[in-house]
Each structure stands twice: as C-alpha cells, then as structure tokens.
Amino acid sequence: MAGSGLTYAADLNLGHINMAGLTVRGGLPLLKLPSAALAGANITAQPYSSEVKPRMNLAAMKRGKGGRSSFSGDVVTVFGGSGFLGRGVANRLGKNGSQIIFPYRGDHYKMMRLKVVGDLGQVLFCPFELMDEESIRRAVARSNIVINLVGRGIETKNFSYKDVNVTGPAKIAKICREMGVKRLVHMSSINARAQPDTAFLSAGSAWLKTKYEGELAVRDEFPDATIFRASDMYGQKDQFISQIFDRMSRVGTKIPLFMKGKYTVKQPVFWSDVVSGIMNSLYDPDAIGQTYEALGPDRFTMNELVRYMFEQSNRTEEEWNLQITELMLEPRVFAKCYLTGIIPFGGVNYFNQLNIDRLERMSISDESQGLPNLTDLGVKLTKVADQMPNELIFRDNYGYLVIEDPSDLPKVNPPKTIRFDEERAVQLQRGKGLINLLPGAIA
Question: How far apart are CA 439 and CA 130, in angstroms?
Fold first, then answer.
C-alpha cells in the first residue's frame, strides 16, 4: 500500500499452521492472520520498499485530502526524472500525492535525491536501458501515466540523436500502448521540423530533425499522446543560461552571436510554467492527442536578450566586460564547440552540452505554428524581466561585494520586446544571407 513501506509475506508456515503475516523489512512480524482470510490472494514478497510492486488497481485506493502524504490514485512513470525539467515534474507529482516510478541508468545514487519528493513508499526506482524493451515494460507495467523527458543535446559513442529522439521514444510509446497506459506525455522542441530553418549548417540541425521524427514515431505508436514543443527553458541549473555564460561559447569578454544576434528572435519560457502545463494536461481531456507549444509571453532578439542577461549580472560594454561580436568571424568558438561535442567525458556536467549543432540551434529564431499553447492549459506565463534576475543572482560579477545602499546598484533596462512589424523587417534582412556579414551591414 502506498505510503506504508510495508511488505506482505503470505502463507507463512509457522509450526503446522498456515498463516499470513504483515511484516516490515527485516522480517519483524506485525500481524498474523489465518491464511483463509487471504484465500485466493496472489501476493508476492518484495524485500525493498523502493522496488516496484506487482500491478494492482491503485486508482481504487485513492486516500487522503491531497498532499505528499496522500495517494491521488495515479501511478506515474517519469523517464528522465533526474534532468532539469524532470526534477520539477517529480516535485509536483509528489506534491499532489501521486506514486512515482523513476527508471534510471547507471549508478542509482544520483537518483536518491528524488526520494524526498514523496512520502514513504510513494517514490520507487527501477533500472532500465533505453534500447531494452523488457526493462521499459517493467518500468511502465504498473502505471496509468507515463511522462518521457529523456533528452540529450549531444551525441555520444553509446547514443546518437536518433537513438535518444526517435528510437527510444518510439519504444516507450509502443510499450505504453501494449501495457494499457492511459496518458503519455512526450517532450519535443518548438523548432522541430522535417527541414528546420538554417543558419550556417547547410543541412540544418540534426537534433531538430530527429525531434520531429520522434514526434511522428510517438504519434504512430500512441495516437493519444500529448506532445509539448518547448522553446529554450531557463531556471535553476538550466542549459540555456549556462551555455550563454559558458567560456567555451565565448572568447574572453566577447560574446559571438550569429549576425550579432540582431536577426535571431527567441521566446524563452520559464521552466516552472512548462511543468505547470505538463501537470495540467494530465487531467485535461482536451489534451489527449494534442500538441502544445511551450513558449514564453514575450519575444526578443538574441542580441537584446544577451545584453540584458549580462548587464543584469553586472557585465557591461562600458566596463569592457561585454562585447557582442560576429560568430562567423570567431573560428575559435567553432573549434571549442567541436571539441566539446566529441570529447567522451564532461559533455553534460562541464561543457553544458555545447557542440556545433547547439550553436546552430541558438542561431535560428523560435517559430510558432499556431498550435495551442500553455495558456490554453490555464498557465499564467512568467515574464523574463520578472524571473530572470533571480536566476542570474549567483552569476553576479560583483556578488562578492557588500552593498550597503541598494541605490548604488546599477540600473538595468528591462529587455525590449520585438513588435510584429519589427520582426518582419528582421526576417527580410536575415534573408539577405551572408551580405549581412559585410562591414557596416550589422550595426
């Protein structure tokens, strides 16, 4: 039973009497009943509270008034629960009393921090491999909801973009359908297209192509899946802010951007808003089989967004520690991102998943296709100017100083949003291509 941490030991042979006992781990009996009381029951023993229990109709066991010590009646498998977005989803699921199963690869100790998102017995762990169908089947066999947040911005010797974005999600969707899962949520990207827009890579982003192929594969296997196309998400320990501030994407105080960022339009979204959208979709019947665009409320040029982020962290052109330059004239950045993309270690924790493909994705605009968005799920979107300063506090260039008078702090102008007519002009200018690289073409 969820939250009890107790295990059943059935048909104990004590002397010459068949008995059924309720025990805690370690074998200490708490209650003994005649086996006739459990006639016909087929309950197997499980030695650890964190192991997945045999399938039961837990929806009929809904208990409590809500909260982490209740049981909502939902058993949710979250693939990628230890990632950036997964941590937020895990916390919300634990908060509403859902029982959560976290499939994991490698060392299980990295998952232990998720144990506290729910009460005792509510958080379970299950080893799996993305290419092993049987391990996926074990992970979803007891769940009525499955959320797939598995993602990786770089390729490794073990997993290609196609493995992570197409083959893996297709296997998960197929097995969910076979196991009778009611709801499946899949994450994609706002710019996922069969032929993505291009900046400097003639074939476009391979990551975006496989994201689009993954959407089609999931829809084919599980037509009722809910898909979220997210733009760049910012928040605690994100990749968006980390990559912009990463020294591998800079040259000293220079911030190289494609066409100086003046012709690339971004619409970043606060990660908590995406989490709210996912949670709301689980209980919205209109979300079944729907695709949502997870976009922020405002659009900015990349140049304006980077300017604001660096000035918010006390790095300005006046103090010579901020200079936005042309990416195509900085071969050192391409060399560094190429190396970080092929080095077999540190790609996630040290280099923030930077590679050439990521530079390409940062250099194209976020384009909506007019699909339903987070506001259709009842989410009140957070503005960049309201939340971004909180996320940049620990990057403050003068964070070591004690500010006695708040008026001494520099005044940072909020990021200027781009109007529709201005964006049209930007698109027309960007369409001129390499002519924009000529001296004086970009102010």
Answer: 49
3-class secondary structure, 185: strand
d(CA 69, CA 241): 35
**Closest CA relative to residue 2, chosen from 65, 66, 73, 67:** 73
As a whole number, the mean pLDDT across the chain is 85
Which of 201, 316, 191, 306 lies closest to 249 in space, CA to CA? 306
Q: Where in the chain is the domain with CATH 3.40.50.720?
A: 58-239+269-298
Write out pLDDT tens, residues 163-195: 999 999 999 999 999 999 999 999 999 999 999
Strand blocks (E) in 37-182: 75-79, 99-104, 123-127, 145-148
Q: Selecting from 3.20.20.70, 3.30.70.360, 3.40.1000.20, 3.40.50.720, what CATH number does the domain 58-239+269-298 have?
A: 3.40.50.720
Quote the CA–CA distance of 64 and 46 in Å, as a whole number: 25
Place of tokens 């999600």: 169
